[in-house]
């Protein structure tokens, strides 16, 4: 199998003789001697390790901020990696982003500064308008220096757009191959058939997409991963399209690539994704991975369940489909047989007479794990609820529907009395636990209150009651 090749700055690298699950952060610091990239949290939250990954997508260079601390080296084939050391020109003149941070006093202790530089640099290469708050949400400054950093970002974003780096584009295009590339026991197929064959041959392999969850197994739990299969090169899994029956989302589609399309049809679901991690994590993680990992607090799953999404699983040449809600069997156990993997998700379009709402409750607005996530999909006519799909995360060992709540709502008038009965019925559906994020009593209380919030938002003037994103 061919070797894994990438560009580090402008230097071609052929990977050999390293642990395939070595993180990019460790490679940069210990192998390449590029120590501007820092280790802070080592789990993808603080942004001190932010670098920019450059890929050729449809003949155009795409610049994406990612967290290097949980990016495996085996996933880098065909990419360019840029760090803070690569931005100044050959004469040592600072890049406009670096210069802006100097001019606006955007650096205090300086530890986090390289990460801010790289996040802002990626934003300057993004098409269209960017939201600076979103750009910087994944970078933490413990010196409280955000105001000058924001002013520096505003200045940097006013700079003229850079010309296309044709040499890099040509090199990255030359690295493209339909063959599986490997680094030891880390395999990165490029086609769906090759992926299916690899998974069948290695049914106990760890399958990764963005590794935003699996990466922590290595960095925090110090686990040794034996055979790893990376799906990020499989073109078929990177497809997202609006089919007649719904949005087809390949298992390799990142949150960033899925967010706009989903938000067009499900604004609240789009907002949930916007609050999932930060830009760096959304550029790496995938909805398919969020579902496949089966976390009871995975933000996407309750929304998919409430929307009535279908999961498509593949084993060899066979594909079977099941409702997303039926995929979760118990804590850490999913309906996934040997050699089987998640291929895609079908998200149906909302009914024209439906209310879809999703509410994430967490201690921080950005970059926090949910204590409770409630998703509601109610079809209605003439003041009566005809059908109810209600799902919660954080309330049980798996993301789960609330059948007693749904029964209390279905066929009933949409009134406060009906909502009160549904709130009481929640006790039949869930017996949550206490943990560091919330107590069981808090979870039950807030989940019930989300039902009342839904009622208020759908019966009062929107401009007075809509509390988007809270």
3D structure, described in words:
It contains 18 helices and 20 strands. The protein is globular. It is an alpha+beta fold. It has helices at 24-31, 96-103, 113-124, 132-136, 146-157, 166-174, 192-201, 214-219, 255-265, 267-274, 279-284, 287-292, 300-307, 324-327, 403-409, 416-429, 440-459, 462-465, and strands at residues 5-8, 11-14, 50-57, 60-67, 80-82, 181-183, 186-188, 206-208, 228-230, 240-243, 246-250, 310-315, 318-323, 328-330, 333-334, 340-347, 354-361, 372-381, 384-393, 400-401. The strands form five sheets. The protein has a five-stranded mixed sheet. Strands 10-11-16-12-13 form a five-stranded antiparallel sheet. It has a four-stranded mixed sheet with strand order 6-7-9-8, covered by helices on one side. A hairpin with a 2-residue loop joins strand 12 (310-315) and strand 13.
